[in-house]
What does this fold into?
Amino acid sequence: MVNVVIEVSRYLMILLMAVYTYLGFHFFRCHEDWQRDRIGTWQNAAMFLLHFVAYVILYLKSEDERMVLFYIAQVIFFLAYIGLFRLIYPRVSQVLVNHVCMLLTVGFVIMARLSFDKAVRQFIIVAVSSLVTWAVPFLINRFWQLADFAWVYGGVGLALLAVVWMIGNNSYGAQLSLSFGGFSCQPSEFVKLTYVFFVAAAFYRSTDFKTVAAVTAMAVAHVLVLVLSKDLGSALIFFVTYVAMLFVATSNWFYLGSGIAAGCAASYLAYQMFAHVRTRVAAWLDPWSDIDNRGYQITQSLFAIGTGGWFGMGLYQGMPYKIPVVEKDFIFAAVSEELGGCFAVCVVLICLGCFLQFMLIASDMQALFYKLIAFGLGMEYAVQVFLTVGGVTKFIPSTGVTLPFISYGGSSILSSFLLFGVIQGLYILKKKDEEEE
It folds into this structure.
C-alpha cells in the first residue's frame, strides 16, 4: 500500500509544482492587486498541499514520529512568514515571498530525506535568518545615505576576503570559511552584497573614466583574492556581475567587450595555474575515463538524473547519498532523481521567475543607485543558479557553489535572505513612489 501511495504521490507533487510555476509566471500578466492576491493565494494552496504530500511519504517510509513534529513546525513557520510579511509590509512583492517559501519547501523535503538531523539544523538556520533579516526592507526605505559609503563597502568586503585567504579553513582545495567557537561562516556569501553596494554607489556618483578605472581596480582586487583563495566559483560570480553592472551604468560596448576578453584570458590563466581547476575541467570533458576518481561525483550525478527521468523515482526510492556532498553543491541531482526532471525544471523556472522580478524592479527604479543594486543582486543570483545547475548537469565544469534556499549551509541561507530582503525593500520603495505619484 505504501508503494502505491508513493507512486501516486510523485505524479501529484509534479502536478502541484507545475501549477505553482505556471501561476508564478501568470502573476506577471496581472496588473490589478486583487488579481495578484488571488494568484498568490492559489500558489500558497499548491505549496502547502505539495508540502503535506511530501511529508506523508517521508513519514510512511521513515516511520519516524519526529517527521510529524518537524512538518508542523514548518507549517507554522511558513504561515508566520507569509502572514507577517504581508502585515508588516503591505506593499511587499508577494510572488517573491511565495517563491522563497517554495524553494525552502523543496530544500526541507529533500534534506529531510537525506538526513533528518541536517534538515532540523537547516530549519533552525532558516528561522533565525528570517528573523535577523526581517528589518532589511525597513532599513532600505529609511536610510537614504546608503549611497554615501561606496569605498567603505569595498574596503570592508576586500578585508573580509583577505582574512579568509590568510587564515581561512581549507575545504576541497579552497579556502572558504572562518570558524568561531564551533560555528563556521563563509564571508564571500556576504561580501557579494557589499560588493554590489560598492559598485552601485561608486557609479551613482560618476561614470567617468577615472571612476571606472578606480572601481575596476577594486573589483579586480576582490576577484584576485578569491582566486588566491581558490574560491573560483565566487570569483566568477563577482566578475560577471561587475562586467554586467559596468555596462548597465555606462552603456559602453568597449567596456563590455574588454570585460569578456579579460574573463576569457583569466579563465585560461586559472586553468594553467591551479591543479584542481584542471582536474575539474578534465572531469567535465570526460568523466567516464576516470569514473572511480576525479569523475566520480559528476558521473554519479548524471546517473541520478538519468535514473530519475522526467517523473522521478519517488522519495526514498533513489540513491542520492552516493553523490559526494549531495546536500550542498549537488542537491539539484537529488531533486532530479527522486522528484523527477519535470519537478527540477520547475525549480529552475521558479528561480528564473525570481530573476525576472529582480530585473523588472531594476527597470522601474528611477535612481541609478537603486537600479544598479537590483540589477547587480539579480545577476549574482542568476549566475549562482546557472553555475549550480550547470555543474550538476555537466553543462559546465563544477564550481562548488550552492543553490539558494535549497542547498544545506548557514551562510548561503542567511545571505540569500539578505539579498531578497534588499530586493523587497526596493520593491516597496518603488510601490510607495507610484502611489504618491
